[in-house]
Specification:
heterotrimer; A alpha/beta (870); B alpha+beta (187); C alpha+beta (263); A: 870 residues; alpha/beta; Dimethylsulfoxide Reductase, domain 2; five-stranded parallel beta sheet; 26 helices; 29 strands; globular; C: 263 residues; Alpha-Beta Plaits; two-stranded antiparallel ribbon
Chain lengths: 870, 187, 263
Amino acid sequence: MPGLGTSLGRGGATTAQQDLSNADAILIMGSSMAENHPVGFQWVIEAREKGAKIIHVDPRFTRTSAMADIWVPLRAGSDILFLGALIHYVIENNREFRDYVVNYTNAPMILREDFRDTEDLDGLFSGWDGEKKKYDPESWLYRGSPVKAGDDDNKPGHAESSGGHGKDRGGEAQDAGKYQEDRTLQHPRCVFQVLRRHFSRYTPEIVERFCGVSEDVFLKVAEVFTSASGKEKTGAICYAVGWTQHSKGVQIIRTAAILQLLLGNIGRPGGGILALRGHASIQGSTDIPTLYDILPGYLPMPSSEADSKKLTGYIGKHSSRTGLWSGFEKYFVSLMKAYYGEAATRANDWGFDWLPRITGDHSHFGYWLDMADGQLEGLFVMGQNPAVGASNGRLQRAAMAQLKWLVVRDMVETETASFWYDSPEVKRGELSPYTIGTEVFLFPAAGSAEKAGTFTNTQRLLQYRNQAVDPPGDARSEAWFMYHLGRRLKKKAAQDFRSRNHGLRALTWDYPVHGKHDEPQVEDVLKEINGYAVRDGKQLKHIKDLKEDGSTACGAWIYCGVYPEEKRNRANERHPNDLLGHGWGFAWPNDCRILYNRASARPDGTPWSERKKLVWWDEEKKEWTGLDNADYEKHVPPDRPAKVHDGHGTEALGGARPFTLHPDGVGWIWVPSGLKDGPLPAHYEPLESLIKNPLYAQQDNPAVNKRARSDNRYANSPGDPRYPYILSTYRLTEHHTAGGMTRTLSHLAELQPELFIEVSPEFSSEVGLRHGEYATVTTPRSTIEARVMVTPRMRPLQIDGRVIHQVGLPYHWGYRGQVTGDVVNDLLVISEEPNVRIMETKALLCDVRPGRRPSGAQAIEKPLTKERLT
Amino acid sequence: MLKHLLSRWPLMRQLQGGGADGTGPEAMSDRTRDLRPKTFGAQVARSICPYCGVGCAQLVFHKDGKLISIEGDPESPISRGHLCPKGADTFELHTHAERLTKVKYRPPYATSWQDIDLETAMDWVADRVWDSRERTFQEKKDGEVLMQTTAIAHLGGATLDNEENYLIKKLFSAGLGMVCISNQARI
Amino acid sequence: MSVTAFLTDSTLCIGCKACEVACKEWNHVSEDGYDWSGYSYDNTSALGASTWRHVKFIEETPVPGLGGNASEQTSWGFSSDVCKHCEVAGCLEACPTGAIVRTEFGGVFIQPDVCNGCAYCVVACPFGVVAKNHGDGRAFKCTFCYDRQKVGLAPACATTCPTESIKFGEISQLRGEAQQRIQVLRQRGLEDATLYDATHTSVGGIHAMFIVRGDVRAYNLPPNPEVPTRYLKKGWMSAAIAAGLLLGGTVLAFLTQPATDAR
């Protein structure tokens, strides 16, 4: 995510789950790790048993809180207030790890005079264009950084259509290597001082008033966590979608990154930020994306409006002079060679003009709204179930009724496949098979044990699955489906020489097949991803082997090395020989288990301490060595001076700049370019909030696209008398996401057979709910019912002198499977956080009333909210 | 014969059980005595759990092309042989009765599914893609390269393999010019 | 071959129920009904014929600033219950058909091919573990994964447990570990941590020990489990005395019959 990507360089967890056992404190926030990642949580338990303090910050007391030393309930959506106050505490109490901060972060960099902070502009940063609803981020650059040459479109952050995934690595801030600095951190415009001022009002008092966390509890957390810092100690942060699924999700993670950089906790054992991914290959499906705005390896998709008229412009915009992104051209050309083979030549810009240009918001929500408006013809859904799994389920389902054709591939008949005859809309009489013209193909899919392939787990580890058995009947892998569909389409294009088919005809698609179903050889795809020399087909061993002259092909540069030679699939290696698991699987990049681990040593190359050693300089062998593969140029000595101001490539970073993807080689407390909603995180209220933003006139994230329309309505904010309670949705251990892989299974269905709403005893008395009976929950999008679970694990909070109530709904149910229940996602609104276009699921407003919801036609005629208004 | 039958009567075995109290091995039936784990003699494929992102390793036991059992792989440096309730239910995920094994097809405005064979379905899907792409493809706009269609979309990927996602992006974007490509991940 | 046991440490249990699922998957045990109990997150409710591991959830009122690992309080306790595999096993003693045997590992094993469904064992279990299957009426409970143990594998529940809350091993060694663990927990301030072993009760020790915080009764663990069969002798004696008294009384009645009755 750009939160980690812009701050540190790569959009991936910085550490391995096992390494949590080395931590002295672990802050789990925006995640119920024990609940949703139970097996990974064993490493938290191990740390706890070794004496680490475990802090869980969560509105609810969950199974994670039950294992923690400190539980902190807070108001949903107030995370940046809380984390900002921790940053404030660090700075005001001189708790920063000064040697780390001065050497390894951009705290000393001096900012431009024309930058204005949220403190000056009441919640906006300089550069805000109220008409276009977006920032011109030029004033966020370091003082002395030249603005990229070219027309207006070539300035950083200007492409409307491009998402955040591809711009999270400072490539746009080409000359972030040019800066002025004050290593005493005293200059009033240096990042450190700007940061101090920016968070000066994020005080314990504010936390008490607006997060609902008492000062003494906050100070306890602050003391415990900021103590896990310095040469001898480290602390780790774990988060999941409890942070990402907010209208400012990226900036919440930014706040955590700033905190960890200040405490010197990145790149060190027991430190880091562990992003906990909810699916087997969330990380993988972003690294090798099925996303609209990036190509494999976080190369941005060319965009029609900005940068991509010519290859030179595209390369120029996304390359940086120094750091790893100086190799952008190598990565891109090698990808084109992997895609288009011999047909990609220098003369035709490697097939650059065969790639489609993105022209707008083609993300799930973006195109789904177009679909609802009848602008799409066909849709493929593979291993996802938007009918019950995505925000505003009514809109999701209604939109599919507008399609000409729909292809669903899954192991069971999902609600997405069956929406045309058994969705709530059909039951209510809003839709009918007689009026739905969508042609639906439902293909049976192979399960994980029935096909070979790699997943990339939450810690960037590629692990290969060997096939055990053939899938049953007509069930096939997605690899089979894509290969054979591609074969058919290439055949159609074979004799059709219009320019639209150049790419399709050139596309290399000659994967060998095997078995009775002609299954493509997955390892051959992995080899292509790894990369090979065009001339002899020999596998590439290392990212360094990539070339920009067309002599190498590589499907995803960051995965280079996973298949370094014939018959050596490192993702399938299973001989672990240490805690970090070297010898088992392959972690990108270059099998580094802990990213930026050069930072585990002092600038002179010796470990900060014996207790926290990880990677260090071996003076005899003249190389970096240690307990992990160095995430650094192996033979560049620590004392080699940096030449970031005028040098080129990674060598220009010298020997002591651990964040090698950044042009300046340091961790970014301040993000000069790459984010759409500010260089620093600021607290904004959720899009639907009970209260006014306590800090700024700007109520919510100004850069958000709310996508408000008649079928995607919002409650009024701040405060809507119709919807007086805060709603969060979440998962339980016993089910997986919207339940497609668990509700059908008897042994899981019985463990959580029914949808329930968790409420506090105080709330249940106020509203008149009774434990075990039903409650009806309403938002402007929909109305659902759930069994009432009254529990002291939920508690009201005192917010600015008044009592506020939060309720919780797990969202695993739908209208099919062994156990069914109302679709919680129907309550949610489609909203788009500006950088990754994620929706807000953790902090919305709702109404709750005792009793069951109206059903059938009544549900349309008598929505509850109207009743309440009269 | 009678003696044999009698000898299988547990009470007889208890009485015969030289010196023991008649509740030990002497009381065991042949089935109990021959009891072996169901994975005995099975082949094993080393795999990874398909649920969350922790990446627990699994041992998939199979015999004669059939799954026998799926459990944790103790050698994994991450999971150390453990699985959560979902991972522990991976065998049922693959073998339960609601599992789809045939292609289902619903023509426009039909009220029920029809059966259709896999190859035909593949041909038809290829036709639909081709036709929609033909109707909606834009090669250029204002003289600049566009090479896209926004009328065909894809959703899904976080539950799929890297190789599969690679092929999806490669064919759909680099081959067909589809730009509406998305999945669950927003990292 | 060694005598084995479980040690279930609830201070490590995260209440995930993987043990329940792994058990059912391994042993082909069916689901227990899709009934939402409303009792915390517990919907399988109790050990039974189709639930051989059961995670109990104990909710108390949490306090901000204190997690469940804080020494000051417990907030949400979880513990995975299982057959205790008693040294003096009521079920085994009560079984009239020889269906219940003690394995070489010390476990108590119901042979499904021998059991005739008489259910004597059900009432004889001091922990309420053994139960009749609704279908064919036979008795079922934890097998201690006898099939797995035979080839040196740990039971399915202990194998899967994500946080190693369920430990499995040689019994005396586990006892030692349990004692050490109690020491560690108490040193950490968890003064209420106790080991439930039931060695000095009528069951004569168990092969499934538990570490819990607070009152063991909250976890369905009777402080003094009693095997009904221990009262057998006493019971027979009382019956004999009663019979004797009755007989004596009758005789006496005849002997002292008033003569008037003879008219």
